[in-house]
């Protein structure tokens, strides 16, 4: 089998976009930043509610968003730990 280097390079270049990261998927850094901003917003709303500057509905909404963000983070963490444990169980 004769392999032409130019043909191989051309085929590699053609398949390169298929292996590129999808720009529509959020990065872990962006997800962490969104998580942090959700927690900070909930904290600020809770402080405002304690001083009477926020209505109870805004507090309930902020707490619900915070709860959802924490549950999502815990679920992702559990999946990562589960995948790591599965990798450790693989025979070498």
TrEMBL record:
InterPro entries: FliE. Its main location: other. GO terms for molecular function: cytoskeletal motor activity; structural molecule activity. It is found in: Bacterial flagellum basal body. One of its GO terms (cellular component) is bacterial-type flagellum basal body. Keywords: Bacterial flagellum, Cell projection, Cilium, Flagellum. One of its GO terms (biological process) is bacterial-type flagellum-dependent cell motility. Belongs to the FliE family. PANTHER family: FLAGELLAR HOOK-BASAL BODY COMPLEX PROTEIN FLIE (PTHR34653:SF1), PTHR34653. This is Flagellar hook-basal body complex protein FliE. It comes from Palleronia aestuarii.
